[in-house]
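Pilot study result, target chain (422 residues):
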Amino acid sequence: MKLNTPTLILFCLFPLFSFSQIETTDNQMKWIKGWTCFNPNQKEYPEPEEVLPNIIDRDSYLKNDVTYLMSGNVYVTNNATLTIQEGTIIRCDTEKTASLLITKGSKLIARGTKGLPIVFTSNEPRKSRKSGDWGGIVIAGSGKINSPSTSKTIEGNFLPQYSSYGGTQENELTTILSYVRIEFAGNKINQSKELNGLSLYALGSNSIINNIMISYSADDSFECYGGKSNLHNLISYKAKDDDYDFTLGYQGELDNILAIRHPYISDISGSYAIEADGYDKKEGFLDLKSLSDIHIKNATIINLSNNSNYQHTTAAISAKNRTRLNLTDSRISGFANVVKFDKTYQSYSDLKNYFSLENSVFNVHSKTVLTQYESEINTDQLLKYNMYTNYFRSANDLFTDPNDEKNPKFTLKESENYTVMQ
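Predicted structure:
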């Protein structure tokens, strides 16, 4: 088909526009400096001085001149608020596996700063910490979930009287988290009971969550179960399972997220940088308007694969149960595929209506889009407003210092091997 003059002009200008946006994203990644730690097993932490009570039923304050030990499950109950001062360190017992559960109606206020982040980490000594040393942080809200049940029960071995979440308070301020590191969490109890680094259950839209780094989680780093909270400046580093997991009708925006995976670190069931479910297929959903609807901007999603191990990678994104997912101004590198859809997406029209990736760069080594239906339509057209590499490149080929354990950098190197998909 012959292109008219205006179309040709847009075609030529688009790559320049894309690189301009990518450079802007690089500059925005300055937010990772000053408070992160990409090699927490080498970090020396002071010994614990005070053990947290297992039930916190009144407003409490943790000070940064004390190092705390969390042993077993710690419940914040009775509508109490737990406030943690900037720079506070909480070490978590590995023998009596520790988790912090903020029950419905209670609050966690943990405002760290760039110079004094709040740290939750393993109680094991330097060089002896490992994924799953402790449970994780669980926050239960009263927001909406996309389920026939208004209220559900939190995953894990928690006391049933403290384990409910969900409700009708969409605008609740459930928590404030800022400049927090969560290291070596994500303990797996069994195949059906798993603890993530940070589990966010039905959070209200007035919750504030930004500048959170989760390292070496044995399950997901972040998981959102319903709710409408927006999340900003998040890092998932070498999680065993998914980096970012969304289900039960989560609806929100994420801006500036980083996921760094390794081809040899994965759960037996398969792991993704982003796994998104529109609803729980065991229970069904309320209505199509309540499906998970996720908007992500400025994502850097990297698998540190190279030419010797890239065959161990999966898709970067898994979209299931008709979730809606939109990504812009992002970079996806080192995976087998960009996105994998389950059988609930039954046509190319479904794919276009429920998924988009625009103004982004991707580098994969196999088919870009995987679907569960037979079609003669070229599904690569779904990614047409992006740039890509003509052949697989390792992270070191594409980015500056991606493996630096102190100060990794993910600025794209200059390359002549990008083009625009049509």
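One observation from the pilot: The longest strand covers residues 251-261. A full batch analysis is planned for the follow-on phase.
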